[in-house]
Design a protein that fits this description.
14 helices, seven-stranded parallel beta sheet, about 350 residues, alpha/beta
Length: about 350
């Protein structure tokens, strides 16, 4: 099939990834290509040139330096992105694709979905965003294409705005994320973007209470938060290892006895969880967002949101869980191949409906 993928523009689709959406988009595009599809990724020009990329903007709208310092001018970002997406959607009306798959966080593709001849599918990677909700309410969701959500929890958050949603869990490349023969040691790990919503400092407090050394890995996305809440907690047992390449991150996860996940908001999915399970590492986390859908007692433990004492107990209990079971659950429920199979089936149904 000929597939157009609309990426978001805030960060380049390139390593080291700014977050889970960039990592997902890169892997998804490559897997579609590997399956023989003719794929075009519409994203920023500083994305990985080895992707089948058609730039719609020269550079991503939020450089790492401004993201770290919190100096993001949302009105300017929205203006630049809106213009880029408007040009793209107008151009798509003149091109021949079997399906357009929208992974952006913008309302503009929704605005044009009803007038572009090619059917459009949007995956909702975030909770309801104000500008997207306003677009849906103004135009009726039926004129904005089809929708897929990445968890039942996130679908529930959107259901007052979108009546019909399919749910396809995000997948992870279980070939890449693996145990790789790395000896396991009695350490915890926390990884992700370092900012208040992710609760890094709570993971440190829980690990200390559980008597576990902990490694902190990821880009600093809020320097004030890092300086005030994370840096003072670092010591010989609590190490900040910076923003690691995915190959190195995989080894760090695989050597850890438990991953601690501390969302302070309702995570729509939680790739950190499934990447950890694929590496054979059980997960202790707060019961928020989609985490209760992903984590059962065979692969992890959940604590009440914000409760550091419960989280410490959860982390300790995870030390008894089977690494092999974690890996098996990732392969059976959250593999990338399984996810792409579901999307391909949706593409085929959409093409058949158009042909009819």
């Amino acid at each position: 099939m000929k597939i157009g993928i609309i990426g978001h523009l805030k960060h380049p689709i390139a390593k080291p990834y700014a977050g889970g959406l960039e990592s997902f988009t890169d892997a998804y595009v490559r897997n579609l290509v590997k399956r023989g599809h003719d794929v075009t990724l519409f994203a920023s020009g500083d994305s990985d040139p080895s992707l089948p990329l058609t730039p719609i903007i020269d550079r991503a709208t939020i450089p790492d330096s401004r993201r770290r310092l919190g100096r993001i001018h949302n009105e300017w970002v929205e203006s630049v992105e809106d213009e880029a997406y408007e040009h793209l959607m107008t151009a798509l009306g003149q091109q021949s694709f079997d399906v357009i798959h929208n992974h952006s966080l913008s309302p503009i593709p929704l605005r044009f979905a009803g007038i572009v001849a090619t059917p459009m599918l949007t995956t909702l990677h975030a909770p309801p965003l104000e500008r997207m909700v306003a677009e849906l309410n103004a135009r009726s969701c039926f004129r904005c294409g089809q929708f897929v959500n990445i968890s039942n929890a996130n679908a529930d958050a959107w259901k007052s705005h979108i009546q019909n949603q399919s749910v396809i869990y995000n997948g992870v490349d279980t070939g890449f994320w693996n145990q790789a023969g790395v000896p396991r040691c009695k350490r915890a790990i926390w990884f992700g973007r370092i900012l208040p919503d992710k609760g890094t400092h709570l993971a440190i407090d829980a690990a200390r209470r559980a008597g576990l050394p902990i490694d902190i890995v990821g880009p600093v996305c809020d320097d004030d938060y890092f300086q005030q809440e994370v840096l003072p907690r670092l010591d010989r047992e609590t190490c900040y290892l910076g923003h690691q390449r995915h190959e190195d991150l995989c080894r760090l996860i695989a050597r850890s006895a438990v991953t601690i996940v501390t969302p302070c908001w309702d995570e729509p999915f939680g790739l950190v969880v499934t990447e950890s399970l694929a590496c054979g590492t059980p997960v202790a986390g707060f019961a928020r967002g989609a985490l209760p859908e992903i984590i059962d007692k065979s692969v992890g433990r959940l604590a009440a949101p914000g409760d550091v004492c419960q989280l410490a107990d959860a982390a300790s209990e995870c030390l008894k869980l089977s690494s092999q079971r974690c890996r098996l659950v990732a392969q059976q429920r959250f593999s990338f191949d399984r996810m792409v199979d579901h999307y391909e089936a949706m593409y085929e149904r959409t093409r058949a409906e158009v042909a009819a």
